[in-house]
Design a protein that fits this description.
Chain A: It is found in: Cell membrane. The complex is a heterodimer of chains A (329) and B (346). Chain A is an all-alpha fold and 329 residues long. Chain A has 13 helices and two strands; from the N terminus they run ααααββααααααααα. In chain A, β1 and β2 form a beta hairpin. Classes of the chains: A mainly alpha (329), B mainly alpha (346).
Chain lengths: 329, 346
């Protein structure tokens, strides 16, 4: 177990290293002068040269990358000529536009993304697993057919279409809710929940199609196994078989997928955040790309990558814990 | 297979054991009304997209002319008339704020959508088949290296990387080509996985061994023996990739990093529509409806193609077999996930 975990974490670290090399090289090879971008439009040539010196952009790529990597683990100092500018331990550099530390900037945006992820997860688990179980229980009937068509239609439909239609219906026409604008949980929990309701439902419904398919498929597979046949032979009712025994076999893949998805969403639900104006990690990325704020772009990609890779490891661990037949190798 | 002439129909018989022949697949597809409807919708869409300049000429409009006289400047630019300004001159009304003709813009949007989606799918299939074949035929070291890279490509959120990539490409680069490359280069993992798995299975079959013994090199075996057998699974998978790529293009355009205005795109229209949905609901419903119908039709057709190529798939999912369940449990995935459409971004 410990050996497995170490192996997986080692692999994850390697993946992140490769990702950081790839993204850093791209960033370095990008057309346009990073020093000019960092300095701004109105900088004089001398000022640009000064910025180049401070950020070490004149150094060879490898040296720059080494500095960057070191900065992530032990922090980094930038010399402005007169003073030293310190960047704390997980140092991802400074934003070109706001001069904030990138790690701090991402940390500031994390609560909004987390709020979205947790609420949406509840929705997709309840709706998705519920739908999947229902269609497995009513297999062959009209309910299953209807649910299958709805699920198929929902699979692949972009999340912003659902979001736009919900906004149009709930906010513009029925006027049940005001147009969402993000309120931090720490400011006003009630307003926070009301404003997050629509984003939760949108992202939750969008993801739930996948869970419905998965739950239905794995429930049906479990139902075909020998021990279920034995339960049937003993006269256990269908409801108890599906609800208690089949569900137990069907849940491990759902749990694993859930860990993966949660990681992905925490890494930034770009589309949902942009649509609803939630100031989270995904929206930070889109804004940074528009402003060509490269350190922020690199930072967000690395953070998102870390979330996804870690979630992958957690998903495998959870799967093995939930289903004893799976051996960790 | 019919029982009439099984012995004489040797190629057909061989095809039935390996992969069903094209005629058989077509017959099975024809038997499903939903597949036919979906196919018809898509064929219509392709024709409309190809004929966009012609249809624009018939309507007498072009995608980029502003019509200030058709919008109500006192109300912020809402189209005059009902249903977003539908009239004999403007069949689907005009765009709020600018008065540009929506019918033509929708058609040109379909062109971009299909061009990028099909282009990206081609890139994905070429890379995926190459990597998958190399991994399946290569030695252990190459296989494990390529498999790790593939895992990485599958795991990373494609949209985030695509967004990041668009930041470092200069403005002069043609946008549709950039979208094709970005989506194509980032999303070939699934194809590579399937091709590798198929190659490993096929490699151990007699006809491949015979070719090897006959003196064919690895490359020749890959080209002459393996590629034809890989066609069926790859086509199936490509049918699932196209709608995913349509959504990816729409998503990037929605975020404002897709094609550049004034080139119309459905995703971009939806992004603009956010400020208009109370005053001009048509402007939301048109691109949303077009995108939904297109993706749904592709999904239905992809589903049907998969079942036609491998009818066991459908029955296995309906009844469920112990063998597939166990195998899936060992792999840590269920079989439904292998056949599920590619994931789209949130």
């Amino acid at each position: 177990m410990t050996r497995y975990l170490l192996k997986r974490l080692g692999g994850a670290l390697l993946v992140l290293l490769v990702l950081s090399v790839a993204i850093y090289t791209l960033f370095y090879l990008a057309p346009g002068d990073p020093a000019r971008l960092a300095c701004g439009e109105r900088c004089s040539t001398a000022q640009v040269a000064q910025v180049r010196e401070r950020l070490g952009l004149g150094d060879p790529v490898l040296t720059q990358y080494a500095h960057f990597l070191r900065g992530i683990f032990v922090g980094r100092d930038y010399s402005t000529g007169t003073a030293l500018l310190h960047c704390d331990a997980p140092c991802l550099g400074f934003s070109y536009k706001t001069d904030q530390q990138v790690s701090q900037l991402i940390l500031d945006r994390a609560p909004a993304t987390l709020s979205l992820a947790v609420g949406a997860m509840v929705v997709w688990l309840v709706v998705g697993v519920g739908t999947g179980l229902l269609s497995a229980l009513r297999r062959g009937g009209i309910t299953e057919r209807v649910l299958t068509v709805i699920t198929l239609a929902a699979t692949g439909t972009p999340v912003f279409i659902l979001g736009l239609l919900l906004l149009m219906l709930v906010c513009a026409y029925l006027q049940w809710l005001p147009f969402p604008s993000y309120v931090p949980l720490s400011d006003d929990p009630e307003q926070w929940a009301w404003n997050m309701l629509l984003p939760w439902l949108t992202l939750g419904f969008f993801e739930s199609a996948k869970y419905a398919r998965l739950t239905r498929g794995s429930t049906l597979e479990t139902l075909a196994e020998d021990h279920i046949r034995t339960f049937r032979a003993y006269g256990v009712g269908e409801r108890a078989i599906v609800g208690r025994h089949a569900l137990r076999g069907a849940l491990p893949p759902v749990i694993a997928l859930n860990a993966n998805d949660f990681g992905t969403v925490v890494g930034g639900a770009v589309l949902t955040e942009t649509l609803f104006g939630i100031p989270g990690i995904g929206k930070t990325l889109v804004d940074a790309v528009r402003l060509v704020d490269l350190p922020v772009v690199v930072g967000v990609v690395l953070v998102t990558g870390t979330m996804v890779v870690l979630a992958n490891v957690v998903a495998d661990l959870l799967y093995a814990t939930a289903d004893r037949r799976v051996a960790l190798r | 297979m019919t029982t009439s002439a099984p012995v004489l129909d040797a190629p057909g018989a061989a095809a039935a054991t390996a992969a069903p022949g094209a005629r058989q697949v077509w017959q099975r597809l024809r038997a499903r009304p939903s597949a036919l409807v979906a196919g018809g919708v898509l064929a219509l869409l392709v024709v409309l997209a190809l004929a966009a300049p012609l249809l624009a000429a018939i309507e007498g409009q072009d995608p980029n002319t502003y019509h200030d006289s058709l919008i109500d400047s006192a109300r912020g630019g809402v189209p005059l008339g009902s249903f977003g300004g539908v009239s004999g001159d403007h069949w689907l009304g005009v765009e709020p704020g600018t008065g540009r003709d929506l019918f033509v813009r929708m058609l040109y949007g379909a062109r971009i959508s299909l061009l990028v989606a099909v282009g990206a799918t081609v890139v994905q299939v070429v890379i995926g088949v190459t990597i998958g074949l190399a991994a399946g035929l290569g030695n252990r070291l190459l296989d494990s290296f390529l498999s790790r890279v593939t895992d990485l490509m599958v795991a990373l959120p494609m949209l985030v990387l695509a967004i990041a990539l668009t930041a470092v490409v200069s403005d002069g680069f043609p946008r549709p080509l950039l979208l094709i490359l970005v989506i194509g280069l980032l999303n070939w993992g699934g194809t590579a996985r399937i091709v590798r798995a198929q190659t490993l299975t096929l490699k151990s079959l007699d006809f491949v061994a015979a070719a090897r013994l006959g003196g064919s090199g690895r490359l020749r075996v890959a080209r002459r023996e393996l590629l034809p057998s890989l066609a069926a699974p790859v086509i199936t998978y490509a049918a699932i990739l196209v709608p995913t790529n349509i959504v990816n293009e729409a998503s990037l355009s929605f975020l404002g990093i897709g094609v550049k205005p004034p080139t119309p795109s459905w995703g971009q229209m939806l992004s603009n529509a956010q400020t208009w949905f109370r005053a001009d609901p048509m402007y939301v419903l048109l691109p949303a409806g077009a995108l939904f119908v297109t993706v749904f039709a592709f999904t239905v057709l992809g589903d049907a193609v998969r079942t036609a190529l491998d009818p066991r798939e459908a029955s296995r999912l309906r009844i469920g077999t112990r063998a597939s369940g166990r195998a899936a449990a060992r792999k840590g995935r269920t079989s439904d996930q292998n056949s599920a459409p590619e994931e789209t971004a949130s």
